[in-house]
Amino acid sequence: MTDTIEQKCLLKGVKLTDQRRLIAKVMSEASDHPDVDELYKRVSKIDPKISIATVYRTVKLFEESGILTKHEFKGGKARYEELNEGHHDHLIDVKSGEIIEFVDEEIEELQKKVAEKHGYTLVDHKLELYGVKKNLNK
Amino acid sequence: MTDTIEQKCLLKGVKLTDQRRLIAKVMSEASDHPDVDELYKRVSKIDPKISIATVYRTVKLFEESGILTKHEFKGGKARYEELNEGHHDHLIDVKSGEIIEFVDEEIEELQKKVAEKHGYTLVDHKLELYGVKKNLNK
DNA sequence: GTAGATGCAAAGTATTTGCGACAAG
DNA sequence: CTTGTCGCAAATACTTTGCATCTAC
């Protein structure tokens, strides 16, 4: 699995350095969607000499190489997550900030149709739902 | 129509000043989605003494008062548009930057269902489609 | 008259960049 | 070797804020 990231780098002609390997590792182990500051904190624990500039440069590079995706959720800093085969969108708990990933094929289809209807081919999209947890009992 | 904005302000207890009236006017006349800088340029042409700080303060105030909405499209600055009854989403031409507004009730419905399915009540959402114009001839 | 708005410049954030030292292929 | 990366600090971009002055109500 960590292999996969290194393979992706080789594939893209991205030079591998200790810092990049570390950032890749921390990101692939993250189950949340850390922002650069948080990521910097996590990698700093392992390599305290790493610079935040390197973290910024690396997430940008990884994004361009299709290893990470960037999210710009409402009113916050950019947050990153590892990009795997399966595309998904996000449901954000507005109270807790918790993020739930979901996929809805029907919505995906409709988006394509909307774009077509306006004479466009869909190349990308962003769907974010913001919700509050329902009171399940009574 | 400009009346409407002033009425909204009175309703919300928002004090009306020349600067606010001007910003409201420029925004309601805008058919695009200007960012703060662009808005500042437009109002400056009419009142060259206005400060950019006032523009920032006013768009934020108007947003909180439900007069404007803020959009944070990919990799850019925050952009604003007047908030009218009809909600809509955006289809962005990735080549030209042109923005097309659309509504799709089916998608809206499905979004609510997705939120429900995860135990949430949808309070807000963001849907942006990014597309390239199709070659219509031949 | 008074609470709140404005303009200005200074301060914050988030992110990028120039540069000399250093490391990967 | 040579090209590209790193760390550092300075620079940039966008937005917010403190303060004295001014204005709407």
The proportion of residues in beta strands of chain A is 15-25%
- Share of helix of chain A, binned: 40-55%
Name of the CATH superfamily of the largest domain in chain A: Winged helix-like DNA-binding domain superfamily/Winged helix DNA-binding domain
Total of helices of chain A: 5
Task: Give a short account of the largest sheet of chain A.
Answer: 3 strands, mixed
Q: Low-confidence segments of chain A, ≥5 residues, pLDDT <50?
A: none
Polypeptide structure, described:
Two copies of one chain form a homodimer. With 138 residues, the first copy, chain A, is an alpha+beta fold. Chain A has two domains: 5-82, Arc Repressor Mutant, subunit A (Orthogonal Bundle), CATH 1.10.10; 89-131, 2-Layer Sandwich (Dna Ligase, domain 1), CATH 3.30.1490.190. Helix content of chain A is 43%, strand content 22%. The first copy, chain A, is built from five helices and five strands, in the order ααααββββαβ. Chain A has helices at residues 2-12, 18-29, 36-46, 52-64, 105-117, and strands spanning 68-71, 79-82, 89-93, 99-102, 120-133. In chain A, the strands form two sheets. A three-stranded mixed β-sheet of chain A has the order 4-3-5. Chain A is globular, with a radius of gyration of 17 Å. Chain A starts with a helix and ends in a 5-residue tail after the last strand. The mean pLDDT of chain A is 90. Chains A and B meet through helix 5 and strand 5 of A and helix 5 and strand 5 of B. Strand 5 (120-133) of chain A pairs antiparallel with strand 5 of chain B, so a sheet runs across the interface. Chain A binds a DNA duplex (25 and 25 nucleotides) through helix 2 and helix 4.
